[in-house]
């Protein structure tokens, strides 16, 4: 039976995968289950953290867009109605 190892180094601190050998080889179905559960837990934690960061950045961007819209509206209100430029008199060419 071949042994499975993670593709990327993972911290196995406190996980059931340390029960096998010191190099992290998985040699039983129970160790494989524990390893998969550990990886899924870590992925879930990382996903939650990244989701929180993305949502926080979206909230910040929304606040900035709202502020920009407010500033533009203030500029439009203070500028008043746009008056048309007077037409420049053209002399007819002869």
UniProtKB/TrEMBL annotation:
Residues 1-29, 74-94 are annotated as: Disordered. Belongs to the HSBP1 family. It comes from Wallemia hederae. The lineage of its organism: Eukaryota, Fungi, Dikarya, Basidiomycota, Wallemiomycotina. GO terms for molecular function: transcription corepressor activity. GO terms for biological process: cellular heat acclimation. InterPro entries: HS1-bd (IPR009643). GO terms for cellular component: cytosol; nucleus. Residues 83-94 have a biased composition (Pro residues). Residues 12-26 have a biased composition (Polar residues). This is Uncharacterized protein. Pfam families: HSBP1.
